Request: fold
Amino acid sequence: MADREPLLRTGVLLPLFFLIVTTVYLAAAFDIRSQFAGAGEMSPRSVPILMACLMYVALAAVFIAEFRSPTQDGPVRELLRPLLVIVATAGYIALFRPLGYWLATLVFTSALFAIFHFQLRRPLVFAFYAIAVTALFYGLFAGIFGVRLPTLTAGVF
Amino acid sequence: MDIFIDILGGMSALADPYVIAFMIGGFLVGTFFGAMPGLTSVLAIALLLPITYTIDVVPALVMCASIFMAGMYSGSITATTINIPGAPSSMMTAIEGNALMKKGFGANALGHAALGSMIGGAIGAVLLMAFMPIAAELSLLIRTPGKFSLVLFALVVIVIVDKGNIAKGFVATLLGVMIATVGIDVLQPIPRFSFGTETLVEGIDIMPLVIGAFAISEVLMQSENWKSNLSSTLEQAKDLKIRRRDFLPPRAEIREIGLLAYLRASFIGYGIGILPGAGGSMAAFVSYAMARSSSKTPEQYGSGSREGIASAEAANNSMCGGAFVPMLMFGIPGDPTTAIVLGVLVINGLQPGPRLLENQAELLGPMLGSLFFSALVLIPLTLWLFGPWFIKIVSIPKGLLYTGIAVVALVGSYVATYSIFQMSLAVLFGILAYFMRKQNYSTVSMLLGFILGPDLEEYLRRALSLSDGNPVVFLTNPDSLFFLALTALFVWAILIRKPKRAMPRTESGEI
Reply:
């Protein structure tokens, strides 16, 4: 039954997020000022305002459909691993320049292996694969394509 | 005719060993990604997009074309061997191919899939080369109001093919258009939606959007289902003995399928490829359904029809050629892969349109040649060389695979512009795309909205400016009226007319 579904579910929260984004977008669109406008010319804010209005209509249809036949969320624990991946990725981005490619990627790779439960019971194999993945992509980017990747010394000094 | 000769001349670049290396490398990457359930050729090209910043445009385009062709073909490998389509476009092949596999004709089914892909892919590439000059001439006739109506047609088709989720498809497409409006205005030097930051004045690049929507979101999706559920299937398939000589389909079987069936499937695939947002799955489904309805042996369908395999595979590979037509002529991608190829063109400063073909045929020729060569030579060669080991592809542990994808995606998004901001943006788009995919919003629609949004705005504003703000210009201009009528026809045919059979829908939103 529709009324028994919790209100705070992804099927409602995601369009709600889009609604907030659209409102901020629309407010910002009204602040856009045109430098010049000839007869019949649309200003730089016209299309964004039109898009925002269309978005409201589309979101209304999504909300109506969602309340008529709610989409059920999976168990909350389902989100744990994606959340861990996001945290690991955020950490990787934060440490990429300070630690350099080698160390940051080695830590990131190990974190993802742990999240995916890859070779956790065999530490030596785990370490071998973590180093191998780090070295493989260093070879691809720096070796084959000649890209300059950040180093530990560049990050520290 | 001159353009056709220029294209053929441009193909001589394929003789360069450096370019050949990228074509073969791209084909192998595409085969791997296409064969691996959950991975697609779109993801392969998305991951390699940052690399195209560091190499010349010719090898980059050649590599993209061979990945595209390989990805379409190789979905049939796991579809046949373990009944799990490596790519959504191989769903029909899974039905017939795996039935043959269970009867002990797995290698024969793989051979028919490769032959169908080879013929379809080659015909699609030839049709592309043959009709490109004509398409270029025709596109020159389209004026600004017509261009607006054409882009509108593409966006409407993208939304309505997402049947059952039209409102969500509309939201995703509009979101893409809105993201594209960030940065300098398309006609005036005015920054929009920069929120006081210099970084956003430059706008949002296609690369973090592609990496986020297709690579990061896939890693997040897979981390949710991290336990491999293929182990029992793989155990059963482990004892399979596949011999190379069994890959060659007997002449009698090819005669039974008939040349006409291959040609019909190829033309259907090519035609569907031209439609924006349609893709390989629709091509395979329509071709399979038509082959079944006109078959002399319809009773074989569902229990191992070689004709069914040939029709589906010829159509989805021929689609590759068709999908390039609107992308190269109008900048309107026929499917997500060509949308990313369009990104490669734009990154290299090439603007799609008839002038591109006239002035840069030497750049496009190798790409078109790569489509043809990949279909005609690399498909059979790959099957012959690696066929007996195809089953091993799916046995790679998920943890290793998706960790590798995450590293390539993140480092790739950094090396393209040496920017931590781009890396962060890719992750933000990845998180957004993850939740969108969980709620059946098409990330492909978002990408196409992002690509087509600026064109839509520019043509709309130019057309109204030229007509002193009179919107009737869209109805009085013959080419504009044609595309508006075509839009109405598609809305009627897909939405209003009672559908005979629903298309199967995939996780990625592709049908």
Summary: Chain B has one domain: 2-496. The CA atoms of residues 152 and 456 of chain B lie 7 Å apart.
